[in-house]
Each structure stands twice: as C-alpha cells, then as structure tokens.
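Long-time lurker. I teach an intro course on protein structure, and each term I like to show students one example going from raw sequence to a predicted 3D structure in token notation. This year I'd like something fresh instead of my usual example. Would anyone be willing to generate the tokens for the chain below so I can use it in lecture? Attribution to the forum is fine with me.
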Amino acid sequence: MTKNADITFYFDPICPFAWMTSKWIRIVQAQRDYTVDWRFISLRLINAHLDYDTHFPPEYDAQHTAGLRLLRLASAAREMRGREAVGPLYAAYGARIFEAGPDEGKTPGWQGTPELATDALAEAGLPVSLIGALDDTTRDAEIQAESDEALSLTGKDVGTPIIHFEPPAGVAFFGPVISRLPDEEQAAELWDHVVGLARFPGFAELKRSLRERPQLPSFGVTADETGKTEDWHAGSRRLKK
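-- Reply from a regular --
Happy to contribute to a lecture. Here you go:
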C-alpha cells in the first residue's frame, strides 16, 4: 500500500499567490523532510459557472484558460512519469511565469503557449512530445475531479492554493496567502503557527482582503521592495461580487 504524502498541495500554475506559497512550502519540505503530492485545482473550471465579462478583469479569462492548459500538460506528465513528475514541472512553470520579469505588455494567456510549455518540459526532464496535451480537453474531467476534491476539503468560497496536511485525516485549509517569502527561520515558524491554528477544533477563518502585490518579478516587485497594497475582495479582484 502506497503511503500518503505528508502534504497535498493543490495548485493552479497561473496563480501568483499559489506560487509564492509553494516556494515557502518547498523550504518547509526541506527542513522537515516532508513529502509533497502536487495536485491540481483549476481556476477556470471552478469559475466556469460565472460570467467572466462581468465578474473579472478583462485578462482573467485568458489567464485562467492558460492555467488549465498547463494543468492538462501536467496531467499528461503525471500519467507518463508518476506523481514525482509534477513538482519539477510546476517549478519550471513558475520560474518562467513569475520569476522572469514584469509581464506588463504581454498578450493575456501567454503563460499557456507551446513555447513556454516546451521550455518547461525540457527543464523538468520531460519529453517535448507531451506538448499536445495543452489542447487535450479529455483531461479536463480528471482536473475537474481533483478540483472538486480540493474544494471538498475547505468549502467552495476559496481559491488557490489548498493545502492538506497529513491526509487523509489531517487538517486542510486555503492558503495561507502570502506576498513575501519568509526566510528559513520564519518559514518553519509560520508553518507551525498555520498548522496549529488549523488544528484548533471549530476554527473556520482568519482573513483580510487587503494584500500586498507579491514580491515577484512578474509584478515588478523585487525581494527588497514592498508591493502596493490592493483590495482583493472575494480573493481575485472581481469587478462584481
């Protein structure tokens, strides 16, 4: 019988806050010798019931669709090489989407192009022949099921990432949403605080919608700067509730 990973991390590769949290989780993973199972949650699929034109800024439809395309590719990689293939591929996605410089002026949806995906596959040591999975809509049912699995752990009024610690019986929660990457000492301390709070019986939510823009080159914010504070009401700068 296969042992469960210590942490299940549900991500959409297009989400900057999921990426920032994943960087923190990788620090904690190394410190605590945790295993991580990187799983899928698609912002495009969980928001499929909404009218994007009235609920989101104009670029969100293309961006969320790009995330879904990259998840299809990750699904194909997992099918070919197993769950161990997903973490390196997600890291390769994030390096290109969030760490390569400001994304201002780029065509919305550029994150899901074959050019970016091909480079990410190569970095992750995966065959470029998988590239056709970007358009393989037959994989959407699997991604939807995994997205539903994630939301069953937290409820539906959340975004990405969702973390499940010590599954199947352990605690699960959305976030934490962080805009700055903790150093190594802070990383372990923050982890212990988050898990301790989540484990308290009856705890449901601790939240504020004011967020700093994350310290990521894609936002034009360096590690030495503090990003502009914005109100992400409903979690994604929706135009309407």
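Some talking points for your students: Strands lie at 7-11, 36-40, 162-165, 172-174, 210-212, 229-231. Residues 60-81 form the longest helix (22 residues).
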